[in-house]
DNA sequence: AACACTAGCGAAAACGATTTCGTGTTGAAA
DNA sequence: TTTCAACACGAAATCGTTTTCGCTAGTGTT
């Protein structure tokens, strides 16, 4: 078990000083060609690699970025991570990932831990609980310490920092508009409670689409799911005897549950009703019928977030703004859950 | 933008020495009650937190573990990460995640980068390409440097280290046995090429189950998928006019593709054939029909891996073995794709 | 011969923390 | 009055680098 080689050991071995070794390896002109070659050869032979920790301490930067996400099991977040990783690695950065599990306390602890030297900056999507509590002291604190922070997806408007979001309102609007174009007349919305910002925004998009088409929103066509765990039953209950012909759901799972619920009532999708979801995950692609969804381009979001953060990090002396907000456009991916040729009404003609 | 507080600043502010501050904060008996209180109060007031990097350098340990996985988009890996995270955090460790994207080169680079001080040890599932090349120098190297390594899922037998695997052979055997119990007579296997170790092992389980029931394996009932991207067509082609009544697939996607292919031929699952997959992901739960699968307990595997690694790290002076291999049992989760009451033959009686 | 320069290298400080080993001041025992 | 332990604190080494500054010899200039 050979221990890692250090400058000091090389110096002792070759009978020169530590500084000489360091300079030689960094091609300083101060060192003669001879000794430089000798030292480099030795270092290469024994596979010397400088110690990152020592470098971090010296340079006061770690070349790693901290990512804090609410949960990793959501396919969307994994695609974002993918994008972050890619962009970060291309620029010589590492990525530390922590999960808050949607808990405020864990989010705070993780940030504090990472803020003490482990990372140069943060990419964050806030926990649900944080959105509820509206306690952002941990966020303002890292910003005050001069650590750049980029928020994505679930962002906090009151916090002044770089942001990467999707156009939730427009994405939802596009989806609902599509349902309207398909001649749906009673369109249900399955969304989350309002303190989840994306739920709120997508609800807004739904309402705007209705309004633009001079349709009146009906409260009994809107379900705001409180608890994810019991959402399947809640949705089934909600859709019972509603006689709707279109559903817009703010995520994949709600959409799938809606389809299942409709099937239990003897209604087929897309024959009797169209369904559109949000987030283009594996489920949407493989489910039968495959789901038309609003795709969020997670990898793109991740890459943009990383790009923003690195830009701030490399710009000399974190100059405190101006902050950017990048809006990543959504895309409506059409699949079988809105396939017109299947729809019964059409066949009647 | 207040900079982070250091011991030195506290010392200057309170007109004592750095060592006094350090000792006071660590409750050393050397320091008088008076000054100790004073220093602690000051530190608390200004929210002093020691710099992790400096501690890492001093202690020669980072309290972080490096995780290298082939791809994050597979639901299985995200559950493993979840398990690692949980266990690591409970023990005061951080987690750095890197993806090899199944590339040998990226795996090597990532390991070398992290090995230079960034992490104390590794948890790894090797890239496909590494399994092909059989070049393990980067693995032996970190082990030689005294860094503990735990491999999970895709492990390399020749490398001597702690391992966490599932019982692939038995898992597959259980699944196939179930199909046999359901009176299937022509059972197809959809697997991967043999150099993917899990594919090989699950194939073995399939064969053993057949043998134990005195059924003869038929080459034309076995498909070894080479390229994931074209697997859907390959599977459809393979199943054309095969007249099988059972399918065992080594992952979720192959199982789903099989069901789709059968449906295109006018065969219904489970009415005309049973299908069992491997890996209990979101897809299996939500697909219609929902999939019977061999569940791998990813979080459990991750937790075990982290536990093994931390154990090695905390045991004084990495005593070079003995190495453990933990086998996490699989579990057959029954869903509709093997629901007997749906099967036509039964209804005939 | 006196001086200025430069090439080539080493000493030491710095990053932020911990820890070992002094050291000066008490107060009490002899 | 002397001696000594206990107490409370500081100096310095250490972890592994980088970088500034200084030093020494050799060379060239007048």
What does this molecule look like?
The structure is a homodimer of 349-residue chains. With 349 residues, chain A is an alpha/beta fold. Chain A has 15 helices and twelve strands. In chain A, the strands form two sheets. A six-stranded parallel sheet of chain A has the order 2-1-3-4-5-11, sandwiched between helices. The first copy, chain A, has a six-stranded mixed sheet with strand order 7-6-8-9-10-12, sandwiched between helices. In chain A, helix 5 runs parallel beside helix 14. The model of chain A is unreliable at 345-349 (pLDDT under 50). Chains A and B meet through helix 4, helix 5, strand 2, helix 6 and helix 12 of A and helix 4, helix 5, strand 2, helix 6 and helix 12 of B. The first copy, chain A, binds a DNA duplex (30 and 30 nucleotides) through helix 2 and helix 4.
SSE layout:
The structure is a homodimer of 349-residue chains.
Chain A: H1 7-14, H2 18-25, H3 33-45, H4 52-59, E1 64-69, H5 75-90, E2 94-99, H6 104-115, E3 121-124, H7 128-133, H8 137-144, E4 149-152, E5 162-166, H9 168-181, E6 187-192, H10 197-212, E7 222-225, H11 231-239, E8 246-249, H12 252-264, E9 274-278, H13 282-286, E10 292-295, H14 298-314, E11 325-328, E12 331-333, H15 344-348
Parallel strand pairs in A: 1-2, 1-3, 3-4, 4-5, 5-11, 6-7, 6-8, 8-9, 9-10
Antiparallel strand pairs in A: 10-12
Helix pairs in contact in A: 1-2, 2-3, 5-14, 9-10, 11-12
The structure holds a DNA duplex (30 and 30 nucleotides).
Short overview:
The structure is a homodimer of 349-residue chains. With 349 residues, chain A is an alpha/beta fold. In chain A, 45% of the residues lie in helices and 16% in strands.
